[in-house]
Write a structure and sequence with these properties.
This protein is an alpha+beta fold and 174 residues long. The protein has a single domain, classed as Alpha-Beta Plaits. Helix content is 34%, strand content 24%. The strands form two sheets. A four-stranded antiparallel sheet has the order 4-5-3-6, sandwiched between helices. A two-stranded antiparallel ribbon has the order 1-2.
Length: 174
């Protein structure tokens, strides 16, 4: 038997006996997946195909170094889609700060001709259930075909509406 303290509304309220092997008090189990979308500043078409070939894996490296898992990254010349699995202790805002900041720094250092490169400050992050991971992976893999029919702005508005996120279009495209 293991002694475990019970808490009630943040106040210690007693000690309970828990059978051995029934509680792992050192580990939480969390499944936290996000489909994140962000654009280049002013949606400039700066993510050329040669840059894409190096950028998508680089984003995965930033994720790995910071305890995240990138399931896939893709996009077009003006925006990125990345499917991330985040640890329980990492807010999505911190994850995107690390990924956008690290990749912007790398692009400036590695590609001197990209001195105008910057990410848009805003982003979209949409929670994804495990049952929908394959659907989102397929969606990200097919971005080039998708964007023959829809602009980034149209796509982003559809994602916001699909996920029932309230927005004011006057402030979306800063």
């Amino acid at each position: 038997m293991v002694l475990v303290r019970r808490f009630n509304a943040g106040l210690q309220s007693g000690i309970a006996l828990v059978p051995k092997g029934r509680l792992n008090n050192c580990m939480s189990y969390v499944s936290s997946h996000y489909h994140c979308v962000f654009s280049t500043k002013e949606r400039r078409k700066l993510i050329t195909p040669p840059l894409q070939e190096r950028l998508w894996p680089f984003l995965g490296g930033i994720a790995r170094q910071n305890g995240m898992t990138q399931l896939i990254a893709g996009g077009t010349e003006d925006h990125v889609h990345i499917l991330l699995s985040l640890p329980a202790t990492m807010p999505v805002s911190k994850a995107l700060q690390l990924i956008k900041g690290g990749s912007s720094k790398w692009i400036h250092e590695t590609f001197p001709d990209q001195r105008l490169f910057a990410w848009q400050e805003k982003y979209g992050a949409f929670s994804v259930s495990v049952s929908q991971l394959d659907t989102i992976i397929n969606y990200i893999e097919n971005q080039k075909a998708h964007h023959r029919k829809h602009s980034f702005q149209e796509e982003f508005l559809l994602l916001l509406k699909k996920h029932q996120i309230e927005f004011d279009e006057r402030y979306l495209w800063d």
